[in-house]
Amino acid sequence: MRKHGIRLGAAALGLVLALILAVGPAQAADKTLMMATTTSTDNTGLLDYLAPKFQEDTGIELKWSSMGTGKALQFGRDCNADILLVHAPEAEKEYVEEGSGVDRREVMYNDFVIIGPPSDPAGVKGMDVKEALSTIAEKSVVFVSRGDESGTNKKEQSLWTAAGMELPDKQDWYVQTGQGMLKTILVASDRDGYTMTDRGTFIKYEAENNGEPPLVIIVEGDETLFNQYSVITVNPEKCPSVKTDLARTFSDWITSEKTQKVIAEFLLLDKQLFTPNAK
Amino acid sequence: MSFILDGFTQALHLLATGDPETYSAIRATLTVSSMSMTGTLVLGIPLGFLLGYARFPGRRAAKTAVDTMLSLPTVVIGLLVYAMVTRKGPLGDLELLFTLPGVALGQVILGLPIVIAFTATAVESMDPRLRPTLLTLGANPRQVLMATLWEARYSCLVAAVTAYGRIVSEIGISMMIGGNIKWHTRTITTAIALETGKGRFAMAIALGLVLMAIALLVNLAVVGLRRKAVH
């Protein structure tokens, strides 16, 4: 019995050690660029697609942490990232003006869409954004919001204001998840409600559901739904630790003609997720 | 319901084919938990021994503090460590944010009270005749100390396993300090949260299976060692 016990213990410890050895030491690269970015570039798989190409072209490894644009900007202010890839033009301009960021460059765009159950419980299909939002509010149909000060959340809030309404907050029909876009779509789908998302993330969601998603596009095509993405370098004067050259390289690379073409070629279900528009 | 079964099948496939994303998360978890366990044990056992063995003023307060810290929520630890290691924080220059050592720092804070409290209790509840017996046998203070620690070794082991269980399963610290960075700081728990959020259950289930397997292996190891103790 005693021998058996020792053997069992030794075998189990050995297995744990073997597992550690088998998976090897963490890989390290000399040059790494730290990016804070919005959830859409991560959730859609765009960065998974771009990062290896960037490393191949420049030898720099791209590391990124995805969060709402509001938090990403705060990460820049706190000097925790070298570069930002975000989508809230107003907040970005403020960020540059206050001296926290430099060299803001537009990279690509897509558009926002309002999605909901195919049965369209509020009957807003075909309406413009203002009309659709006020009808949803009037009929108190569930609307799920990111509620996390992300670019999408900021955009959504500006649309409520544009529709001439107070920002919904405590209403029963207004659900704020405080989480990423795909999670928020799952909540909306669970509650049979509407939500607003960028087209890239929606196509990703469609693809995850084999082209038959529980929520479909209800409102789209409005001019106000334009969604611009930009890169901003964290200001090295405020944050001396920032790897300015690497950030500069990335900024040049992603706005280069070659990479812009690569972005246009990023497809899911044969649909283009982002349209490059660097100047 | 079928998606659970599908997820399970796909999970086995991911594990069997050596899917790099899955194994990267496994590696990150094993690496960071090994680091934090080393820190926890190296600091925790001597401190726990001291708390259980030595008599000093403020000992009762120290015990209360340790017991309170047993229920420190992981998000609070995450918040505290974040405030320390953010670039503008007091430890900002160490560049610990978004790194596994940074996560390990938080996890040591999580594991430490467990190891200290368990070890202290074990040392305290040992047979009171041990010390006088050792002394009559002519042991010097160092030998008394070593013998006491040796007698408490299995309780220390239980402490280590309990601490490991909490460290390997926590998500608050890993998410806030590690940042869930793919190929680097994405651990099993943060990956499960992410994949579930994206509705990709297969990968989440695969990682869940691995986490349970690690728990099983650790417990088998302890069962083995305890058998050795009994016989």
Automatic annotation (TrEMBL), chain A:
Coiled coil (residue ranges) = none
This chain's protein is named: Tungsten ABC transporter substrate-binding protein
State the organism of origin. Answer: Oceanidesulfovibrio indonesiensis
Q: Can you tell me where the transmembrane regions are?
A: none
InterPro entries, per the entry: ABC-Tungstate_binding (IPR052738), PBP_domain (IPR024370)
Q: Which UniProt keywords apply?
A: Signal
Domain PBP: start-end pairs:
27-257
Q: Which residues form the signal peptide?
A: 1-28
User: Which PANTHER family does the record match to this protein?
Assistant: EXTRACELLULAR TUNGSTATE BINDING PROTEIN
The UniProt record lists the keyword Signal: yes
UniProtKB/TrEMBL annotation, chain B:
Q: Tell me the PROSITE patterns matching this sequence.
A: ABC_TM1
Pinpoint the ABC transmembrane type-1 domain residues.
26-222
Q: Name one Pfam family in it.
A: BPD_transp_1
Task: Please give, as recorded in its UniProt entry, the membrane topology of this protein.
Answer: Multi-pass membrane protein
NCBIfam families per the UniProt record, alphabetical = ABC_perm1
What family is it from?
A: Belongs to the binding-protein-dependent transport system permease family.
Protein's name according to its UniProt entry: ABC transporter permease
